[in-house]
């Protein structure tokens, strides 16, 4: 069984403490990292993926620090960031080919793997279009597609349904649930409905700290709430810091 450990993770930006003493141990399954915008979710995601160094603490994969694993860690990692920094002059298929090469997927295996992930996110028909013509939702789906190239053991999804219409949101949730066997999936979101039905465990992040964790049922029971949405409202208020409603 795979294991991801976060040991006393902290992150400071000049005079702002973004994360404080994060301790987590994750095994195979789907985890929802839930909190309002500005809670520190993206910072935590980028530390787990190795894109950002913590001010303090360690990230371990199966007992070894990720910095020591180097390329071995990157090979088992799939990451879909919230920011849509992509090559607008590329077609969707060319972008996936480029990402597959970066992931050291063998050239002869790339065509089949690319078609697999395109079908997964319902993007086959649009894969020949230039990315610069894509809608925000289409770019988001392409980011998810590149994250699952190569069958990674650790999948990190930062606000994976941002910009998607309701039908596509449901489709992506279902696909995330189907991915969960034999891997760790961490889904960061401020939208309760994105993870309440698919997460094995919910991690509640507020002002850079994990304030509670557990199954939906456990959290509801502890907080005397009927639904996870009620738990969210009690801990974080009705809206995120940017005024975005927390549930859709």
Q: Terminal Cα separation, in Å?
A: 34 Å
Structural class: alpha/beta
Shape: globular
N-to-C series of helices and strands: EEEHEEHHEHHHEHEEEHH
**Lateral strand order in the biggest sheet:** 6-7-8-3-9-10
Number of strands: 10
Share of helix, binned: 25-40%
| Uncertain runs | 239-248
Please, could you describe this protein's structure?
This protein has 248 residues and is of the alpha/beta class. 33% of the residues lie in helices and 25% in strands. The strands form two sheets. It has a six-stranded mixed beta sheet with strand order 6-7-8-3-9-10, sandwiched between helices. It has a four-stranded antiparallel beta sheet with strand order 2-1-4-5. Helix 7 links the parallel strand 7 (154-158) and strand 8 (184-189). Helix 4 crosses helix 5 (110-120). The longest helix is centred in the C-terminal third of the chain and has 14 residues, at 166-179. It is globular and about 50 Å long.
Short description:
This protein has helices spanning 41-48, 66-69, 71-75, 92-102, 110-120, 136-147, 166-179, 216-222, 228-236, and strands at 4-13, 16-26, 29-34, 56-61, 64-65, 77-80, 154-158, 184-189, 201-206, 209-214.
């Amino acid at each position: 069984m795979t294991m991801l450990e976060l040991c006393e993770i902290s992150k400071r930006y000049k005079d702002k403490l973004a994360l404080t003493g994060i301790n987590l141990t994750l095994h195979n399954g789907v985890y929802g990292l839930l909190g309002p915008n500005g809670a520190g979710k993206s910072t935590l995601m980028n530390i787990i993926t190795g894109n950002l160094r913590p001010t303090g603490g360690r990230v371990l994969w199966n007992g070894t620090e990720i910095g020591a694993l180097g390329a071995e860690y990157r090979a088992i990692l799939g990451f879909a960031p919230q920011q849509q920094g992509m090559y607008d002059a590329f077609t969707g298929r060319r972008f996936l080919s480029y990402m597959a090469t970066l992931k050291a997927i063998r050239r002869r295996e790339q065509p089949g793997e690319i078609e697999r992930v395109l079908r997964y996110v319902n993007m086959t028909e649009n894969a020949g279009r230039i990315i610069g013509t894509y809608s925000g939702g289409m770019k988001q789906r392409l980011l998810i597609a590149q994250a699952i190239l190569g069958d990674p053991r650790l999948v990190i999804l930062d606000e994976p349904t941002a910009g998607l219409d309701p039908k596509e949101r449901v489709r992506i949730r279902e696909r995330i649930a189907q991915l969960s066997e034999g891997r760790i999936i961490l889904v960061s979101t401020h939208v309760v409905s994105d993870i309440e039905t698919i997460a094995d465990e919910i991690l509640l992040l507020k002002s850079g700290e994990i304030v509670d964790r557990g199954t939906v049922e456990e959290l509801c029971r502890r907080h005397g709430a009927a639904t996870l949405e009620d738990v969210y409202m009690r801990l974080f208020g009705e809206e995120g810091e940017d005024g975005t409603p927390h549930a859709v």
